[in-house]
Amino acid sequence: xxxxxxxxxxxxxxxxxxxxxxxxxxxxxxVLHLELGEPGGGTPPAALQAARRALDQAFMGYxxxxxxxxxxxxxxxxYLDTYGIEVDPRRIAVTVGASGAFVLGFLAAxxxxxxxxxxxxxxxxxxxILRALDVEVVRLEVGPQERFQPTVASLERALxxxxxxxxxxxxxxxxxxxxxxxxxxxxxxxxxxxxxxxDEIYHGITYGTPAxxxxxxxxxLVVNSFSKYFCMTGWRLGWLVVPEDxxxxxxxxxxxxxxxxxxxxxxxxxxxxxxxxxxxxxxAAYRRNRDRLLAALAEGGIRRIAPPEGAFYLYAHVAExxxxxxxxxxxxxxxxxxxxxxxxxxxxxxxxxxxxxxxAASEEVVAEACRRLVPWLRRQAGGGLS
Length: 386
What we know:
Layout: H1 13-26, E1 32-33, H2 45-57, H3 69-83, E2 92-95, H4 97-109, E3 115-120, H5 124-132, E4 136-141, H6 152-158, E5 163-167, H7 179-192, E6 195-199, E7 221-225, E8 238-241, H8 247-257, H9 263-272, H10 276-299, E9 313-317, H11 325-336, E10 338-339, E11 341-342, E12 354-358, H12 363-383
Parallel strand pairs: 1-10, 3-4, 3-5, 5-6, 6-7
Antiparallel strand pairs: 2-8, 7-8, 9-12, 11-12
């Protein structure tokens, strides 16, 4: 029987690493999860309270396709409180995770054959969703000199383009786009008719300059999520700020593809906004984890790391130790119990020389992982390339 060509996309390798880690755990061996971008603190208390209250008091039927009006209004208030930007709640679509937001946004904005640029290394689902939709992915090869972020020069070399995906802070690097460069990119894309898609799911998790939203860019699609800062991964809830010209197309797509986002998760999300002090304390813990892991990697001989200005990842250059990041991560798990993600997940061209370490887990888990990493890395350095 025929099988769709669109389904022939690369796997999301971090999930394969998770499977291997879970198999190790099922065999009774300890696993320290530094592969997942999953906050270790669990759902915030006020979100759980709101969910329990809703189960007792609210009708768990469908919401509107764009979500509960109360939640959309609360998200709009979040933009005013956090960025000083007014966003009409009718332009906010609550989605089934940020993944659902990308599917809706890409379908509404781009046709098969359109050219959409994105930086590599970058989140693999961007490229894989676009390719599944028969959109041409234009790879922007950026490195340490560009802080692993797009530049106007890289866009000029890639023209013509229909879209550009930005992420600041970015996965896997944690790097952010400096304000002046972000302004240049916005101006260039507006002039060239390039639709911006801004992935802002790590907003709120920064360690210096706060992140800047593109919700005030008239033609941009802005994606956010309750999974990262709000620590609600398993509730599968995100949102999309839709430009005026795409409100009706995204509405029709949402109605037909998803009907509505999960109602109980939306009630929980309303509660999560009341836990900002708790969530900010968790960001402070991520900072401590970051500094601890940076020190351990340096002690083990790994010092070439992307600037971790936000999110909760370190993207480490390990070419002195291996030219096969998949095998490197396999051995690391087998010999230490520390799970990490090979860089080829994020950059098929150069990722065999990189590994992503997540420091989203608890401080206890990250501290123990560091204790195991240092001697293991030193042994690898003594043995040469594997």
